[in-house]
Amino acid sequence: MKKVIVTGSQGFIGSxxxxxxxxxxxxxxxxxxxxxxxxxxRSHDTHPNFKLLEMDVCDLEIKRQEIFxxxxxxxxxxxxxxxxxxISYFHKYAYDLLANNEKIMASTxxxxxxxxxxxxxxxxxxxxxxxxxESTSKYPTPEGEERLCPPPLxxxxxxxxxxxxxxxxxxxxxxxxxxxxxxxxxVGIGEEEALGEEKMLVxxxxxxxxxxxxxxxxxxLHLEPNQKLPILGKGNQIRHYTNGKDIARGIVLAMESExxxxxxxxxxxxxxxxxxxxxxxxxxKIHNTELKLEHYEPFEYDVxxxxxDVKKAKEILGFEAEISLDDSVEEVxxxxxxxxxx
Length: 342
Hints:
The protein has about 350 residues and is an alpha/beta fold. It has 10 helices and 15 strands. The strands form 5 sheets. It has a 7-stranded parallel sheet, with helices on both faces. Strands 7-12 form a two-stranded parallel ribbon. Strands 8-9 form a two-stranded antiparallel ribbon. The longest helix is centred in the N-terminal third of the chain and has 25 residues, at about 95-120. The chain is globular and about 65 Å long.
């Protein structure tokens, strides 16, 4: 049984990754300090092949004596731990996002380098972000464009780009194999309200700023059919919403593939959807009445288009997203009805 270390295992995407790995027969060692949501229960927690180390990734060296025996025979590391939040996070934690995530990456790569040099680690899989393409004007955006377009303006996007350079530096100096994954707009169940997220009211309506889909659903569930749905901007922002199960499947495919060594992949649906189109889908499923929008000033870093080229993942990994946005919306609505008893 091969072993995978997953940092950020209790997070939104991390929990999908753990389930995918466990279903495929891997042993999983999760590392997480519950800093994003506080204590949460995940469906993989009680799996017999899962063990959680409840700790900060930055403390790997401090806790070495206690935990190293669990880590040293790992075949892969999936580096998903990071400070991450909604678009308000980019402003509220502009310095912390850069400083803390660099520390997390350095600690993770120190472990990966040692396990590769002295033991049998095959490679590190790094979860980057579509925000590395924040300043591009090329759509759909292919892998490699992050080196050609201007650097991201947000510290979050810039740090995610730096995460990719950790891969390049560790490969050049220590010959550590890597694979870089850029998920695009993950949707699914389990996206809780983040601790420390900026609280924002639009009118008298709270906004869930971590991801647009739960925000739209939350507001629609709390509004009457004749009320206006508040959104940031005109609703023309284009995204490729991708179910967490598909993203996790793509990540594990890339982890396993020999052809993915020292490569980077956009893991995403190929279907572009505007925020207005997403809002109409949500509103129809909850109220089945005509949608009326109320527009508010968007955030500075609300990128208008994030549209990936997904040919590389299809050609090399055989990966294509399978779950439709319509099915994802229904899944999240049902989950949020239970969360908010609506």
